[in-house]
UniProtKB/TrEMBL annotation:
Keywords: NAD, Oxidoreductase. The active site is at residue 269. This is UDP-glucose 6-dehydrogenase. NCBIfam families: NDP-sugDHase. It comes from Streptantibioticus cattleyicolor (strain ATCC 35852 / DSM 46488 / JCM 4925 / NBRC 14057 / NRRL 8057).
Length: 446
């Protein structure tokens, strides 16, 4: 069985490389020739731990590779090659709207379908509004030449950035939405590899498969906003949200994961996914069911503003950023990624700069992307350089490198030893004993 993967972003590049790792012949397609040229040399346009190595191991033409993975921009080549075609293109938020932009998914199906010449299965992996698969199945059937017998299935992907390879090779579950036994059989065959061994496989209809992804991301977002709401109450009451999260998490119905309070969630998935879900529920007349997600979103966005206010207060009694130097540690929306899409860290940095602060940012992997998006911020080559001369240090992305910083060394270059932890991953005691005024979100001041 040969596979094609359409779209070579985080999802597609990882899926293609992981499938090659499992022994499949894979052809990746993207409409961006520069991306394809780079991938064909075995290089990744993004930073994702372990993925470069996987590409090097399988991309055809790389010395010593298995040659099982190739890339193209040619739809006919992809149609001829694949028995199963995975659609892995992105579904970003529409500008100025909650709804997601389905144009890349639609165009993938519309570009592939006319070239199909034999029975094939097209499998959507992108996160889409419920009802999309049904519509795309009709489009596929209408556009595929007579006799090509193209069928659609929905197989949402749950990978996290920073763990994309691990999550793809060892998923918690596999969900497939199908309409026929043949489609189910073909997907079972794809996953009858180490991926599938021991992994729960849920077979369902299109709508449920689409909704599983919407529901999972909504639940995760709700968990983060819940603990951030508790952080607000803790701050008002003098409580400690970190201890609170630890204590409630011991109840295994609640669990410890996704209960880290701070400046909230960002990235290319959670924020836009909950908004698209609300928009779709509205179209379906079920908007009341998801009004709580509006609150989840607004608690989350409020965190960014709250960090700006904490930084302003830390700058001194006159309540102004003017003439103050702010060091920002972190630019990406999460660690182990170079992704700065909807990054809370950069949002906070940008707001402070707009209000007159002199902001210097350092991030282990996200500097290039950050500089493209926020070219007017100052960027430093290291955490130490960012902190040099700073009146306040803000810890905004929870990289391991920042947990391992030496507060004594940083203290010797800072203008004022004052740090705000926006991720609750630094150890207050270590910083305080090095002479820093340390404040964290949702935790008591000392
Ligand atoms: C998310 C989902 O986890 C994944 O299953 C889905 O396929 C895509 O969207 P990702 O966007 O990679 O994955 O990030 P995730 O690890 O979920 O973190 C999202 C954001 O929440 C980050 O900004 C992170 O810093 C923040 N976060 C996470 C918290 O603020 N607190 C937490 O406890 C956990």
């Amino acid at each position: 069985m040969k596979l094609t993967v359409i779209g070579t972003g985080y999802l597609g590049a990882t899926h293609a490389a992981a499938m090659a790792e499992l022994g499949f012949e894979v052809l990746g397609l993207d409409i961006d020739p520069d991306k394809i040229a780079m991938l064909s040399r075995g290089h990744l346009p993004i930073y994702e731990p372990g993925l470069d190595e996987l590409l090097q191991r399988h991309v055809d033409g790389v010395a010593g590779s298995t040659g099982r993975l190739r890339f193209t921009t040619d739809w006919q080549e992809a149609a001829d090659f694949g028995d199963v075609h995975f659609v892995c293109v992105n579904t970003p938020q529409k500008r100025g709207e909650y709804a997601c932009d389905m144009s890349y998914v639609e165009s993938a199906v519309e570009s592939l379908a006319p070239h199909l010449t034999r029975p094939t299965l097209v499998v959507g992996k992108s996160t889409v509004p419920v009802g999309s698969a049904e519509r795309l199945a009709e489009r596929l059937a209408a556009l595929a030449p007579a006799g090509a017998a193209a069928e659609l299935a929905w197989n949402p992907e749950f990978l996290r950035e920073g763990f994309a390879v691990e999550d793809t090779l060892h998923p918690d579950r596999i969900v497939i939405g199908v309409r026929s036994e043949e489609a189910e059989k073909a997907l079972r065959e794809v996953y009858a590899t180490p991926i599938g061994a021991g992994t729960p496989l849920v077979v369902t209809d299109y709508a449920t498969a689409e909704l599983v992804k919407n529901a999972a991301n909504s639940f995760l977002s709700t968990k983060i906003s819940f603990i951030n709401a508790m952080a607000e109450v803790c701050e008002a009451a003098g409580g400690d949200v970190v201890k609170l999260a630890e204590a409630i998490g011991y109840d295994d119905r609640i669990g410890h994961k996704f209960l880290r309070a701070g400046i909230g969630f960002g990235g290319g998935c959670l924020p836009k996914d909950i908004r698209a879900f609300m928009a779709r529920a509205g179209e379906l007349g079920a908007d009341q069911a998801l009004t709580f997600l509006r609150e989840v979103d607004s608690i989350n966005m409020r965190r960014r503003g709250h960090m700006v206010e904490m930084a302003r207060e830390a700058c001194g009694a006159d309540g102004s950023f003017l003439g103050k130097r702010i060091a920002v540690l972190g630019a990406t929306f999460k660690p182990d990624s170079d992704d700065v899409r909807d990054s809370p860290a950069l949002n906070v940095a940008g707001q402070i700069q707009l209000q007159g602060g002199q902001v210097t940012v350092y991030d282990p992997k996200g500097m290039e992307n950050a500089a493209r998006l926020f070219p007017t911020l100052t960027y430093a080559a290291s955490a130490l350089e960012a902190v040099r001369g700073a009146d306040v240090v803000l810890h905004l992305t929870e990289w391991r490198e920042f947990r391992e910083l030496d507060p004594v060394a940083l203290g010797s270059v800072a203008a004022v030893r004052r740090i705000l932890d926006g991720r609750n991953t630094l150890d207050p005691q270590t910083w305080r004993s090095a002479g820093w005024t340390f404040r964290a979100m949702g935790r008591p001041r000392v």
